Amino acid sequence: MGKPRPQKKKTSKSRAKSVLSAGGSVSKQNMNEDPSKILEQATIQLQTGQPDAALSLAQQVLNNAPANSPTQLLALNTVGEIYVEVGEIDIARQHFMRAVELDSDGTIPESQGGGAGKFLWLAQLSELGGRDSVQWFEKGVSSLRHTIKQLEQNPGPEEAIVLVEKKHKMANALCGVAEIYMTDLSWEEDAESRCESLITEALLVAPNAPEVLQTLASIRISQLRTEEAQTALLRSLALWKDLPPEDPTIPDFATRISLSRLLMEVSKELEALEVLERLILEDDQSVEAWYLGGWCLQLLAEKQQAPKDVDEADESEESPETRRHASLDASREWLKQSLALCEVLQYEDERLKEHAMELVQGMNKELGEEIDDDEAGEDEDNGEEWEDEEIEVESDSDHEMADS
């Protein structure tokens, strides 16, 4: 499965201009260092949340690189990836296209800036999508096949690790093409057969890749083969669900969001909620995770089921209506949190917000409107004031009776 396409920012060229004019950001002494080491520093800075510093370093290497050299190719790819990260998609695309001019078939070794990366990025950043994306994915797959063949001819411990990584990347690229044939090119006569051949090859290359199993499930869902889709999704989940959070083999956040959606689609709400609860622990600012959790709980309520941990009660002792209300209560809380984050983060997905509000309004009709904590506090304060006044009245009355 390919990475989601980054959203283009409105301020597209301001960062480029500021970096290009920042001639003194890298000292001459640093520029005498190995350029590849400087590009590694830029990558580290990007990973540690310093994109402007990373871009300044990488751009200076690119500006000083000899034409058509491995250094220029390395720098073009690095600068392109930094621009993707900061949302400057047009500029990123321009750098990857320049890299393609220097390594048109992706056979230059990655150590010299070649390989499949630029093709895979262009597939995801394509403005045209459809066939244009497929073309770039296929160039990336061809490059990866070449790299994999070379690694298999020179087996060794280090090569074995790299081989697994390249096979995983190739399988994901094949899945990226399959997803295009399920969406943009679904109208083509051979779309289904193309999907079958692509997912078959992906499974041969990386049979235990969670993303590949999720793509298999998507294809089976489109074919209305729900049980097979369920099996694939549960296999995907089992591969990583018991691993510690820091394990690098756990799929990225976006892939697991996709997994939760697919699990909901095949009526595996409890498993989907398990995935979403873990995602919330990792990032409690994810609007989509809170929204999907709320929707998932609402679907459980429709089945008169409750999440496993509600009151830690024995579900067999609860009435169906009790379980339904427990799920609705939890659903409303998740959805309200999602809507609150929408406001704070200025979230732009109007359809998500409208659906969340619709679900909350439906629950309010059944459960009754919730009283906000502030309102409850005001009511308690008012009650205390009335009690104080009554006490004072009684005290005055008692005084008068004593005087008489």
From TrEMBL:
TPR repeat start and end residues: 73-106
CDD domains attached to this UniProt entry: ACL4-like
Coiled-coil blocks: none
InterPro entries tied to this protein: TPR-like_helical_dom_sf, TPR_rpt
Gene3D superfamilies xrefs: Tetratricopeptide repeat domain
PROSITE patterns, alphabetized: TPR
SUPFAM superfamilies hit by this protein: TPR-like (SSF48452)
Ranges annotated as biased composition (Basic residues): 1-16
Signal peptide: none
Keyword line: TPR repeat
Compositionally biased residues, Basic and acidic residues: 320-329
Superkingdom as given in the UniProt entry: Eukaryota
Region of interest called Disordered, as start-end residue ranges on this chain: 1-32, 307-329, 363-404
Compositional bias per record (Acidic residues), positions renumbered to this chain: 369-395
Protein name: Uncharacterized protein
